[in-house]
Amino acid sequence: MAASLLRRCTALLALLAAAVALVLVAPASAASADPEGGTKKLRITLENAAKGYDAAKTRLANSKKRQKQLTEALKRSETNATALTSQVNEVATRVYQMGRVNTISLLLGSGSANNFMERLQSLDMLAKMDSGTLAGYRNEIETAKKAKTALDAEVIEQQRQVNVMAKKKREAELALAEVGGGAAGGFVDPDSAAAKPAPRNSDGSWPKESCTVKDPTSSGCITPRTLHAYQEAQAAGFKRYTVCFSERSSGEHPKGRACDHSAASGGFENSAATGGDKTYGDRLAAFYVKNAGELGVMYVIWYRQIWMPSTGWRAYSAGGGPAAVHTNHVHLSML
């Protein structure tokens, strides 16, 4: 009897211990669950890679603009210097032929005070003309020399930025290897509407923004650039249920730099989009990709694929349900 009671007590204690373990573990598991799939580390790496790539791309574009301006300046200086060459040769010949003695003889042989003054003025004018010609020639030569030096520096700068872009591309590819990362077909729509460009700085870079404007999809806030992208998508006909700001432990949503667009017309469904809903998601993803440069898109995730400016479309096989693998919504992250 005692042995039987002991066995029942032991079994009861085991069940109690298991229940306690479930209670303790379950909240921690829920807290670490990521509705977007992937990991916090992955998103941080992708953000750093995307921002670094975009900054290098902007610097490269600016360098190419300066290179074009310098090339035009060099061409003008060389053309002007060539045009002045004949005049410089004339000055050199005149100086050689006249010399100091001939100049004095010319003045002494003037015959009268008036003739002397006229010849003196002529020589003075000639000297000024010669001086101006030589100064102009030297200036054009110096300008051309500086332009060539600056052009060489721009070539070095461009190679440096190309190297940075390649490095950031590689960082993104290595990070995406965690969730598949292989080349993917992607989503392209040649009929995608053109979005109005978001404001940029004078150097072509994106202004630093924070969560300062009211989010029309929630009670939270988003950045001005995110709002612009959302409004452009709406204007292009993508008006299905969307949520941008949301409280999360990581990612762009709590920063107001991301939006989730439901593929289904009735809102987020716990199933993969098919038929017209799938087509809607395909077209929306293609819209954001086509207008990435105008809107400031960092990346787009849709139907187990992710697009970044540096990598193009890549596989995104994060584990989980439709939300985690993005088969029920299009995810947009902004720079």
From TrEMBL:
Which keywords describe this protein according to UniProt? Answer: Coiled coil, Signal
Task: Look up keyword Cytoplasm and say if it applies.
Answer: no
Q: Domain ARB-07466-like C-terminal: where?
A: 219-326
Which Pfam families does the UniProt entry name for this protein?
A: VldE
Q: Region annotation Disordered: residue ranges?
A: 187-218
- Superkingdom of this protein's organism: Bacteria
Q: What is the annotated signal peptide range for this record? A: 1-30
Task: Return the InterPro entries for the record.
Answer: ARB_07466-like_C
Which parts of the chain are coiled coil? 53-80, 134-161
Q: What's the protein here called?
A: ARB-07466-like C-terminal domain-containing protein
Instruction: Give the organism the record lists.
Output: Actinoplanes xinjiangensis
